[in-house]
Predict the structure.
Amino acid sequence: MANTVFPGYRGIANITPGIGNFRFADASITATQEVNAPDLIMGDWDHDAYNYGPITVGGSMSGPVTETFASSVGVFPWACKRTAPCGELDKKTVTLYYFCGTAPMGGNTRTFTDMLVQSVGFSCAAGDVATFTLEVIGTKAGAWTQGIAPQVTTAEKLITWDKVNVKVTTNGDDVTGINFNNLAYSNFDFTINNNIEPVYSLGQSNLFPYEIVPGLRTITGTISVYNAPAIDGRDFWDQYLAANVSVIQFNIGALSINMRIRFHRIQPASSVGPIISTVGFTGVTHQTGSPWV
């Protein structure tokens, strides 16, 4: 009897606690491991000595930004909220239902525990739907099981460009000669990377990570504006004041976020279409307010 081919659209992710069922376009989360066969002087012309490498648990999810992503208890706060005073991230359990139906062998469901967000990316262009990418990392991949995927039928609105509002406040010396309040924006994107490192211990009982440790948070991104090729910084380094960072205040649906940054120098370009200038930025100083802490 031929195996049945199941459609993936009946799958879904469940993220607990707090987030619940989560829609996405693509997901690839699994446990990976390499078999290492080093080159040795060993009296043969084929590799005879080998070892199993460490197991890494993680992967990626991507898709359009939904109301669940942008809620106050959604995916974005999971990705960037640190707990004072030690900067810890929130661990969650991710269950993937790959399809609905009984697999001829193995299962259709797998649960990954102690999952942290390695990085989250956000991008929105005027006239389009906002999109996200999510990289996760964990310490354990559960056994494959048979499970019926939840039938989620509640309608959910996607976040379109008109619900992504951007406002820039400069503090005197980051950018000169530009009033950002008079500008229209065509694109906005950023990546928040938590730089998580898997840690392994001597004598541990398996090859999964003993722990996963968040690192320094790195924030980078770009913002594109119409008719502003002259965005530039000060001419000399000593004209900058360390505390005078700029703030990008943006709304993603119901979320309102302040991101403290420094702008790069712009690299203007010319085209026959609308004049659009893109300037990069880097997050600096302590990020405050919800949902950062």
